[in-house]
Design goal:
Layout lengths: L15 E2 L3 E5 L3 E6 L2 E4 L2 E6 L3 H15 L7 E3 L13 H4 L3 E5 L2 E2 L2 E8 L2 H10 L1 E2 L2 E2 L9 E7 L2 E2 L7 E2 L2 H8 L1 H23 L3 E13 L2 E5 L8 E5 H10 L9 H8 L14 H18 L6
Antiparallel strand pairs: 1-2, 2-3, 3-7, 4-5, 6-7, 8-15, 9-12, 9-13, 9-15, 10-11, 13-14, 15-16, 15-17
């Protein structure tokens, strides 16, 4: 089955095309469409992962439903209730699209980290900090942090988001708004962490986006998907920490690991992705979806 990497209709072109999502601007709303495109090292590949966009959309919609105490941008998830002409193309928009409210995007990624991993651990070894946040001494690689930390990043449309200090965010947004974003982000992380832990999954970290609508802070974009979060099976993670290995995660790490074996400079054009690498990555997305969709409100 061919992955839906490009989604076009004759009546209207997307107003914005990102690495994964296409956006259509309507009068008072937007249609967000998650394609099957895959990117790594900020390069979009010619191949996609079949149904990846549908999986990301279903996971995100499920979390928006479960976290109803947080205001969000969702207007409609039922394709049949989308405005014309979009509701005439189920093969293109069903299950991979959401109709959302237009909000003023806050141009910061709100990142919450619960574990000492990867580049965070490397920084901690050198300076005792993660993204500039001072941490207690004596923490171990892969260990759970004493409490989740908030490490914002500037939001950019192309390239890497840049980690910044909370003081920088507070200087740009003001004490009140920055404080609310931090509190909301950590609350959302803790809520989802507990739900996933009961189902055998560790939520290592996540990034959230917020907007302002009618003077309210609302969640926008996607939440707690394999593209915005790192998930691990608890037993696999604990075993990997003991042996010093990297635990397998539920995302496109399989693709990144494969690309690291190539003589590729990480600039366009991208190398072709083998079918088995695409298939293995797709199975990881499907596996975490099945776990998430079994979680119910308590």
């Amino acid at each position: 089955m061919k992955a839906a990497t490009q989604i076009f209709i004759p009546e209207k072109k997307p107003d914005y095309t990102g690495k994964v999502r296409d956006i259509y601007h309507l009068d008072n709303s937007m249609l967000l469409v998650a394609t099957d495109r895959i990117s790594a090292f900020d390069v979009v590949f010619n191949e996609g992962i079949p149904d990846r966009g549908k999986i990301l959309t279903r996971i995100s919609n499920h979390w928006f439903h479960l976290l109803s105490e947080f205001d969000n941008h969702i207007l409609e998830t039922d394709f049949n209730k989308f405005p014309e002409p979009f509701n005439k193309y189920p093969e293109l928009f069903a299950e991979r699209s959401v109709l959302v409210k237009k909000a003023e995007r806050i141009d910061f990624e709100c990142v919450v980290r619960g574990f000492l991993l990867g580049s965070g651990y490397k920084e901690y070894e050198k300076s005792g900090t993660v993204c500039g946040e001072k941490l207690p001494s004596g923490l171990s690689k892969g260990g759970r942090l004493p409490e989740p930390i908030f490490t914002p990043a500037t939001k950019v449309d192309k390239g890497h988001d840049e980690n910044v200090s909370f003081d920088y965010m507070r200087d740009k947004l003001g004490d009140e708004l920055a404080g609310k974003l931090k509190d909301l982000s950590i609350k959302a992380y803790n809520t989802v962490y507990e739900k996933l832990y009961k189902n055998g999954i560790l939520l290592a970290d996540t990034k959230l986006e917020f907007g302002i609508l009618d003077n309210k802070i609302i969640l926008i974009d996607e939440i707690f998907t394999p593209d915005s979060s790192r998930f691990f099976k608890i037993d696999e993670y604990e075993n990997a920490v003991k042996t010093g290995e990297n635990p397998p995660s539920f995302d496109k790490q399989i693709i990144r690991d494969y690309l690291e074996t190539l003589d590729w400079n990480k600039n366009p054009p991208p190398p072709p992705l083998p079918e088995d690498i695409i298939e293995k990555s797709g199975k990881k997305y499907k596996e975490i979806e099945e776990i998430v969709l079994c979680i119910t409100k308590e």
